[in-house]
């Protein structure tokens, strides 16, 4: 069969395995040539390793100077009679192949990061492959549902404003149409559930689990990713359910920092730049901001993707500086270039002009769409998209 892109709304329903492979190779090439990570970690656990920031962090730490071995946890689907499987499934496979070619260990654990079974598998893998200890724990899960560990009932997150309704546009990635939507303000229960799913409590419970299993190495660090944004998107982000969940994550970083101080380690929430990922295209009314930001940062010469952000985080901030550079709230700011006054001024200007008929000209729609396609292995240079691929051939690939 020839694998074609299938998109419904803002969700990709197919992925191209060899496009994912090429995209991994491109990121590896970037990491090899970039400013190298010095004094980096050797044994890294990444929760949410198969796409977005988690995958980029894994590539940067393996190929960008640190030569780390990694254990990656993700929730992905392989090929079956229902379809070819998810992009993250193939990212895991091809990352591992490339890492092993360079003599690095790359262990993929596919399972629900909220389950006890996955925790047990991770502890066992740390015992088996890392001599029992990790040097860095990266928490990069993005999900909408988390089971309550005590009752098993599910908390479901809602990406909504708090207080007032918000009206804005989302660009559908199947039809390329601009859709105006009004998002109703969240209820108390929705706020609470979103904090449970996207806040810091699961991050904290993972680190507690690893402390209890004596898997923390001397000097072990942990990071989780956050976003703040600017006034242009405060109503849906910072002042909404997501923003409140991120404040909870920031607070968790302080209590984890105290716990890891016992090992001469640290915990930091790391504020990243807004980027197109499987998770971010879901945020209603966020698209015009990202399209304006991409254009403004490309004009400014400071645009970065996930791999550029992660390589810079580890080479410039987390490992090459003592003390680690942080802001007044002890956050690592990888959104420093996004927040430059000239960039934000340009974003505001572009957003004020953008509408349903001109968004493709005013914003960087092409860049936005291309990155979305590439996340799923499409639109990557050098890939033969006409090649005939069989399900049998794909099932022989093992994560
Ligand atoms: P993503 O959707 O690309 O990756 C999420 C990862 O989590 C995948 O590896 C997926 O398999 C894994 N995952 C999801 N549910 C799981 C489960 N139950 N068990 C195991 N693995 C599971 O997401 P992205 O965008 O890289 O997000 C990572 C973090 O970065 C999130 O906290 C997000 O809020 C944050 N962030 C994202 C920004 C953006 O613009 N994309 C900006 C700043 C922060």
Written overview of the protein:
- The chain has 13 helices and 13 strands.
- The protein is of the alpha/beta class and 399 residues long.
- It has a domain at 7-144 and 191-277 and 305-335 and 376-395: Rossmann fold.
- The strands form four sheets. A seven-stranded parallel sheet has the order 5-4-3-6-11-12-13, with helices on both faces.
- The radius of gyration is 20 Å and the shape is globular.
- The two termini are 22 Å apart.
- The site of 1,4-dihydronicotinamide adenine dinucleotide (NAI) has 29 residues, from helix 2, strand 4 and strand 11.
CATH-defined architecture of one domain: 3-Layer(aba) Sandwich
Unreliable stretches: none
Which shape, going by the Cα principal axes? globular
Q: Mind telling me the CATH class of one domain?
A: Alpha Beta
- Within the CATH hierarchy, at the fold level, what is the topology of one domain? Rossmann fold
Rg to the nearest angstrom? 20 Å
**String of helices and strands:** EEHEHEHEHEEEEEHHEHEHHEHHHH
Count up the helices.
Answer: 13
Topology:
Layout: E1 7-8, E2 11-12, H1 17-33, E3 43-47, H2 52-63, E4 69-74, H3 87-101, E5 106-110, H4 116-129, E6 134-139, E7 145-147, E8 154-156, E9 166-171, E10 178-183, H5 188-198, H6 201-212, E11 216-226, H7 241-261, E12 266-271, H8 287-300, H9 306-318, E13 332-333, H10 341-353, H11 359-362, H12 365-375, H13 391-395
Parallel strand pairs: 3-4, 3-6, 4-5, 6-11, 11-12, 12-13
Antiparallel strand pairs: 1-2, 7-8, 9-10
Helix pairs in contact: 1-2, 1-3, 2-3, 2-9, 5-7, 6-7, 8-10
The structure holds 1,4-dihydronicotinamide adenine dinucleotide.
1,4-dihydronicotinamide adenine dinucleotide is lined by residues 48-54, 73-76, 88, 112-114, 140-143, 225-227, 272, 274-275, 277-280.
């Amino acid at each position: 069969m020839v694998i074609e892109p299938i998109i419904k709304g803002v969700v990709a329903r197919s992925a191209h395995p060899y496009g994912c492979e090429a995209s991994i190779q491109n990121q590896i090439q970037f990491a090899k040539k970039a400013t190298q990570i010095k004094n980096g970690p050797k044994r890294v656990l990444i929760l949410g390793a198969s796409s977005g920031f988690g995958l980029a962090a894994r590539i940067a730490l393996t190929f960008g100077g640190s030569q780390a071995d990694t254990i990656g946890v993700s929730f992905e689907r392989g090929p079956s009679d229902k379809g070819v499987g998810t992009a993250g499934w193939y990212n895991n496979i091809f990352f591992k192949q490339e890492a092993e070619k360079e003599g690095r260990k790359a262990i993929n654990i596919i399972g629900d990061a909220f389950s006890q079974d996955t925790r047990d598998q991770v502890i066992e893998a740390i015992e088996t492959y890392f001599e029992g200890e990790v040097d860095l724990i990266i928490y990069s899960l993005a999900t909408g549902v988390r089971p309550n560990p005590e009752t098993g009932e599910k908390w479901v997150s809602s990406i909504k404003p708090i207080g007032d309704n918000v009206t804005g546009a989302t660009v559908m990635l199947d039809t390329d149409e601009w859709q105006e939507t009004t998002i109703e303000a969240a209820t108390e229960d929705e706020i609470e559930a979103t904090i449970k799913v996207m806040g810091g409590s699961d991050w904290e419970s993972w680190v507690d689990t690893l402390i209890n299993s004596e898997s923390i190495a001397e000097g072990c660090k942990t990071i989780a990713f956050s976003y703040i944004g600017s006034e242009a998107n405060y109503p849906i982000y910072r002042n909404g359910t997501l923003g409140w969940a991120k404040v909870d994550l920031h607070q968790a970083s302080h209590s984890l920092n105290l716990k890891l101080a016992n090992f001469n380690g640290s915990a930091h929430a790391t504020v990243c730049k807004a980027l197109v990922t499987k998770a971010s295209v879901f945020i209603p009314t966020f698209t015009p901001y990202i399209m304006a930001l991409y254009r403004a940062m490309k004009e400014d010469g400071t645009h970065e993707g996930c791999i550029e952000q992660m390589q810079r985080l580890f080479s410039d901030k987390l490992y090459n500086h003592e003390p680690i550079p942080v802001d007044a709230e002890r956050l690592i700011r990888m959104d420093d270039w996004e927040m430059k006054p000239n960039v934000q001024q340009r974003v505001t200007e572009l957003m004020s002009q953008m509408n349903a008929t001109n968004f493709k000209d005013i914003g960087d729609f092409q860049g936005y769409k291309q990155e979305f396609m590439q996340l799923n292995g499409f639109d990557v240079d050098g890939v033969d998209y006409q090649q005939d691929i069989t399900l049998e051939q794909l099932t022989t690939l093992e994560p």
